[in-house]
Design goal:
The chain contains seven helices and four strands, in the order βααβααβααβα. The chain has helices at residues 12-16, 20-30, 43-49, 59-66, 81-89, 102-106, 121-131, and strands spanning 3-10, 32-39, 71-79, 115-117. The structure holds adenosine-3',5'-cyclic-monophosphate.
């Protein structure tokens, strides 16, 4: 196993529900939080961050949602962090996420799913650099 960095975003739905602290507690139990900030994404930031999805039908709604309120962005470090954080988050669709996962406990559906996480080691590095200086 290797030491990896993954980018977590506590999304506007979770921040609005005032559960970002409870989510942070779960993250701190398993990872080293190396950087963290709260911000309100601009449309330009959200469009650039999710550029890989720009041809998808859900893209406009995703940008509206991700800019609808503040988010908390965190760089998480740990052994095998990409896979372990994805397990902790649960399935993208909160209605299908396993019991005990963050998305099951704090999300609502496919869009309002409480948290984002990087899907590969390369994206973990790229997405962390999007928000934080090395
Ligand atoms: P996230 O992990 O942030 O990565 C892209 C996001 O797009 C995803 O979580 C969901 O919030 C959203 N998303 C992915 N697929 C769909 C879909 N089929 N319909 C609506 N939203 C989606």
């Amino acid at each position: 196993m290797a030491l990896e960095t993954t980018l977590s975003i506590i999304k506007p739905d979770a921040v609005a529900k005032k559960v970002s602290g409870r989510i942070l507690s779960r993250l701190e139990e398993q990872f080293n939080v190396v950087a963290m900030k709260k911000l309100h994404l601009t449309r330009e930031q959200a469009q650039a961050f999710y550029a890989v999805h720009k041809e998808r039908p859900f893209y406009p709604a995703l940008i509206d949602f991700m800019t609808s309120g503040p988010v908390v962005v965190l760089a998480l470090e740990g052994e095998d962090a990409i896979k372990r954080y994805r397990e902790l988050m649960g399935a993208t669709d909160s209605t299908k996420a396993a019991a005990g996962t963050i998305r099951k406990d704090f999300g609502t559906d496919m869009q309002k799913n409480a948290v984002h996480g990087s899907d590969s080691v390369e994206n973990g590095i790229r997405e962390t650099r999007f928000f934080f200086a090395p």
